[in-house]
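Subgroup meeting minutes
Present: P.N., E.W., G.H.
Scribe: E.W.

1. P.N. recapped why we're keeping a running log of single-chain structure predictions: easier to compare across weeks, and new members can see raw inputs and outputs side by side.
2. G.H. added today's entry (740 aa).
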Amino acid sequence: MSAVGWLQVVCIGLVVVATVVGVGVFTRGVVVIVRTIRVGRPLPGRWSPAGARLRTLAREVLGHERFRQRPAVRAAHWVVMLSFPVLFLTLLTGYGQLVDPAYGLPLIGHWVPVEWAVEAFAWLGLVAIAGLVVLRVRTRPRASQPDAEQRRSRFFGSNFAWAYVVEATILLVVVAVVLLRGLEYALAVQDGEPWASALHFPLTAWFGQAWVGADRATLEAWVLVVATVKILVSMSWFVVVGLQPTMGVAWHRFLAVVNVYARREPDGGPALGPLTPLRDGDGNPLDLTAVDDLPDDVRLGVGAVEDLPWKGLLDVATCTECGRCQDQCPAWATGKPLSPKLLTLALRDHAAATAPYVRAARAAGATDEAQVDPHLGVDLVASGVIDPDVLWSCTTCGACVQQCPVDIEHVDTIVDIRRYQSLMESAFPAELGGTFTKMERRGNPWGLPARQRLDWAKGLDFDVPVVGTDVESAADVDWLFWVGCAGAFEDRAKRTTRAVAELLHAAGVTFAVLGDGETCTGDPARRAGNEALYQMLAAQNVETLNEVGAQRIVVTCAHCFNTISREYPAAGGRYEVLHHTQLLDTLVAEGRLRFAPGTGDDGTGTTVTYHDPCYLGRHNQVYTPPRDLLAAAGVTVAEMPRNRETSFCCGAGGARMWMEETIGERIGTVRAAEAVATGASAIATACPFCTVMIGDGVAAHARASAPDDAVPAAAPVPAQVGVPEVADIAVLLRDRLDRT
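Output recorded in log:
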């Protein structure tokens, strides 16, 4: 037997063993992941409608929608992603080349479109993966850096060894493909094949020509060696990932397809806006207003990893550790311990370690408490899997969900864990205890009496009708004005309420309010995990709204807007709900509101920077009306670097409005500094929570810049100290209203 013959035998033997081991170990990894995911609770509705989900899957995967803010990374990752299925054909070819070095796949082996695709993706894949490796190396945190600087890297906490294994595998495979194409060209030329031309080898013939003069045995030997190396590298990767079912940086290329398909919103929207309902062990929504009907052993929320729905476990298994969520998280950016990525990884590792015990206990049918394995029912917070400061730092702003390229639903998981802590363990921050009590007894988180809900209207030069007193039904007016708790009780928010009322009155819009018939929508309670209190308040409000015949509702609070429009339908309340910026924008377009031209000293107007509230913008995609209103008022908008869907949170969401920030910087102060840096003379908001938090942040920023205490410690007073005014868009519009 010739030397090439012996080499062929050795290569085939190595490849056969590697393939059997690689496919076997990889299959074992698939089984482990599937079994872990099946530990989770049922979650109905995540497989249908198939048509809409498949369309969304194709759009999200092929379009790489979540990479829009990073165009270079988007292009590189897109190439690497598609190179996997395209270059898989070369893996199949490699097996044939071990038997016959001149082998080509039947039918498509020398089909020009396939050959062009293979060569294009091989070269582009080489450039793309090299670029991604350079990016990772340049932006990774280094031990020599201070902790604060390390945290600024989105790769902080990621497993670099795993990432480099994946990247090295891709690099070696694409290099092997390029080399093999050149060798194939040389063999084809020697054999006088009709496809031995630049048409069939458009990007490799140029260097394949250099090998044409080599003897046949040498060319065949090199084909055998390179094909073997390519297959061995591929099978080694299969072994590595099969032994590491938690290696999300590798497994996401398979799991992401399922995760995107099973997303909460089949039409493609992120898992924002309404929260998923509280569910029982069978995945059915729970009605806590009928608490007496609940079984004694019911577990409310997610206390242990087995309480997660299967989609939640698929989420954590899919995480690719890219850190985009961490990069956008306002809590992490201000020195708090919450990183959506690290939280996801902690759940992933705990699920992988716990799932076998859960399966074993279920298989044994353990019912007696003494029989239950100690790994069952492990409290995620009490056991230290999730630190309480991590859990309660979340503002539910949704930046993590918006940015995640594989559709992980972080906010739903965090709130589900909060539900267990609040409802089952009564383990929540001390400040929330008083807030819950005030909401339950007084119907608002400030604890003020309902009779004060109309105090904001005192001094207006027109009457504000109350449904049930001045008008019989809400159907008798154009809009029911939902004032909200902040709009009724918080002084800065009262300015917004009065301004909206004045603008509606000036536009000839008839409206009425509920007065003391209003109560809190329940948003803070729900996002703090107190689902029982939320459901009580929601049922009360829906009953009131339905009784008064509410059909069209306008609100000033972004949180009320989200709750009434997106969450109340599940409680039986379906209404047309507009945020005040949407309604005012319509009135301006209709010519019912006009503004005086130019109010600045130079007659050109004021420069304003606009802060996108999370629950108006990111959660509900309302970005344009506020900006159109400012343009209509003749002001110049100076955008902050983080705006629209990448807007930075004010820090008030997720019930954080009623919790002190004792770790790191205040989120509102960081956002205020960003706003001040634009040089704008005013900061426009569209949510009372944002007005309060950014207003306090501007004052804090000014105090830090003026150590002589030139800025009072209370509310900001811009006119006296020369710092930007913080006001709702409605206030700015009201002050510019053309009353002629």
